[in-house]
């Protein structure tokens, strides 16, 4: 992680120097963190920059843990994390705001070219695989999930994230919710002691491992699977339905927690109740973390403008990339947070 952060800091410094040389009117903004949100962040940066050519935004896709550390160190203007900061974590940092920016499914993808239809997996099969207790694709639990499907008789190779990751936090939060054994032995968090498997850095690294490893299975954000033509499994929810990851099924998961999210937007949206029959069970909100105050009125105003674009017009771009748009109640919370931003102690527009 230290090497990743150091590399990112050098890149950020180089970006700042080149931006300043290119134009005295250029406003550079630096961000870092979640790889989960990187596909839509790229789209947001492009969309905002077209309307604001004097603002140059550089986002480093290094993982949620790295983004949090860079915000804490004061080396970036904003960070992105799929695992929201707790009150205790926020108390250890300079005053900041934290708010959801979008939501998406953590999908389970695999390398089984023999299958001609989507794999179906129950909670019991998923936890058995990632605990290392289910080791072959013809295990009776997987066979039960996929009646009539000819499964290959070959070993299962688990792939997981190697670094501190908000995607891992969301995924292990789900595993802890559906398995007492997982909750006791492994638990939930950005980094866990995996019982089995190979590690890949970022969603990109996990995707690469999956593509080159026959019989493998792992978890990534949906956009990465689609861009790499990897199949995604249908996951059984509490209603007993096998649901594919999508914008609609993630929205259904969000809607199942509407009242809780109104009280605390950090509420996990995994494993929705059985009343949410169409909800995908491994969904997550992803968050932006931003220092409340900072130097330079023009720079801070540009930052606020970009973040407002993200949670308003930018939600359409998120939907196009299979992320779920934020509900109105969460958008209102986001705006309240953005209104707290200041520059050198003075309010922004």
SSE map:
Blueprint: H1 2-22, E1 27-33, H2 38-51, E2 55-61, H3 64-73, E3 78-81, H4 87-91, E4 96-110, E5 120-121, H5 123-130, H6 140-145, E6 157-161, H7 166-178, H8 180-185, E7 198-200, H9 202-212, E8 216-221, H10 222-227, E9 234-236, E10 242-243, H11 247-256, H12 258-263, E11 283-291, E12 293-294, H13 297-311, H14 314-320, H15 328-338, E13 342-343, E14 346-347
Parallel strand pairs: 1-2, 1-3, 5-9, 6-7, 6-8, 12-13
Antiparallel strand pairs: 3-11, 4-8, 4-11, 9-10, 13-14
Structure description:
By secondary structure, the protein is α/β, with parallel strands linked by helices. The protein folds into 2 domains: 2-104 and 285-347, D-Maltodextrin-Binding Protein, domain 2 (3-Layer(aba) Sandwich), CATH 3.40.190; 105-283, Periplasmic binding protein-like II (D-Maltodextrin-Binding Protein, domain 2, 3-Layer(aba) Sandwich), CATH 3.40.190. 43% of the residues lie in helices and 20% in strands. The protein has 15 helices and 14 strands. An 8-stranded mixed β-sheet has the order 2-1-3-11-4-8-6-7. Strands 5-9-10 form a 3-stranded mixed β-sheet. Strand 1, helix 2 (38-51) and strand 2 (55-61) form a beta-alpha-beta unit.
């Amino acid at each position: 992680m230290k090497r990743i952060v150091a590399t990112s800091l050098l890149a950020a410094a180089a970006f700042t120097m080149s931006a300043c040389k290119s134009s005295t009117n250029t406003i550079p903004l630096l961000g870092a963190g979640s790889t989960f949100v990187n596909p839509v962040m790229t789209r947001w940066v492009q969309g905002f920059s077209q309307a604001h050519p004097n603002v140059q935004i550089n986002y480093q896709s290094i993982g949620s843990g790295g983004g949090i550390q860079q915000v804490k160190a004061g080396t970036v203007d904003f960070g992105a994390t799929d695992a929201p900061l707790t009150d205790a974590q926020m108390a250890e940092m300079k005053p900041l705001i934290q708010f959801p920016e979008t939501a998406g499914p953590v999908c389970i993808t695999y390398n089984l070219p023999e299958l001609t239809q989507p794999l179906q997996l129950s909670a019991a099969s998923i936890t058995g695989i990632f605990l290392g207790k289910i080791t072959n694709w013809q295990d009776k639990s997987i066979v039960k999930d996929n009646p009539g499907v000819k499964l290959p008789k070959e070993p299962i190779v688990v792939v997981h994230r190697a670094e501190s990751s908000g995607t891992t936090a969301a995924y292990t939060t789900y595993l802890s919710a559906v398995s007492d054994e997982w909750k006791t032995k492994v638990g939930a968090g950005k980094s866990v002691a995996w019982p089995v498997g190979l590690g890949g850095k970022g969603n990109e690294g996990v995707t690469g491992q999956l593509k080159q490893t026959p019989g493998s299975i792992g978890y990534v954000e949906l956009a990465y699977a689609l861009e790499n033509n990897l199949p995604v499994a249908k996951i059984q929810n509490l209603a007993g339905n096998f649901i594919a990851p999508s914008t609609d099924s993630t929205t259904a998961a969000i809607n199942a927690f509407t009242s809780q999210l109104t009280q605390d937007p950090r509420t996990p949206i995994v494993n929705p109740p059985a009343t949410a029959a169409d909800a995908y069970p491994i969904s997550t909100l992803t968050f932006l973390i931003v220092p409340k105050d900072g130097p330079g009125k023009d720079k801070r105003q540009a930052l606020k403008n970009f973040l407002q674009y993200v949670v308003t017009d930018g939600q359409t771009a998120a939907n196009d990339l299979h992320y779920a748009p934020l509900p109105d109640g969460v958008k209102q919370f986001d705006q309240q947070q953005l209104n707290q931003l200041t520059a050198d102690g003075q309010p922004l527009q």
